[in-house]
Task: structure prediction
Amino acid sequence: MRDYSNVPVLILLGPPGAGKGTQAKVLEDQFGLVQLSTGDLLRQAVAAGTPAGKAAKSVMDSGGLVSDEIVINILRDRLADPDCAAGVILDGFPRTIPQAEALSELLASYGSQVHAAISLEVQDDAMVERISGRHTCDGCGEGYHETFKRPVVDGTCDKCGGQKFRRRADDNPETVRRRLVAYHNETAPLIAFYEKSGTLEALDAMGDIAAITEALRQIVRPIVVDVRGVHAASKNSKTAQMEETQ
Ligand code: AMP
Result:
């Protein structure tokens, strides 16, 4: 079993549409962390037609939560991949108290723990609009929004030049409302769970995306530096260089 004691483990909490995926990608680039999105992993399982994907599909389409067992197994397998030794940012996991408990146990078996659970605080009313306008580039997965983040050249991806975009099947107003109900019933209790363990950080996530990113960076940077013990580590390491440039 690998030793993850110097591996930062961060969680982004928040309802659908709060910007977890967008912000996780930024943190991934800036701090060399690996974004672990159980939603993405489940969509891959659905596309690949695995037994887990087959069991998850109808639940996902309806806006409910996939069983803890399936999601925990998917996360456990992914966390064992060597790239996760760079540090992880969990996006969309945990979503229930049993998942949070399973995560603590899993991390403990690696000699690690959750270092911060960052709650992106938003108003529900705005989430339906935010989600209904979002879409991603088919080629590279870059995220866009009809109102808040359009490509520089209409219809062309800024990142890869692709011209095909896709919307998620569950990003329609009716399903989004059900996903918000699931969030409040099952996931919101995690805020108190992580507050109790002293790892909760709350962030107002209603404003400008760049300003939220900057505020998030201010929270994340000292945690990542501290966990990695970067000051004691070799200045030649890729990680140290990456953080020195921030
Ligand atoms: P997301 O991409 O995080 O919005 O997730 C899309 C859908 O995948 C959710 O609406 C759930 O049906 C399912 N899902 C993703 N992560 C979890 C999780 N941790 N627990 C249960 N269901 C999940």
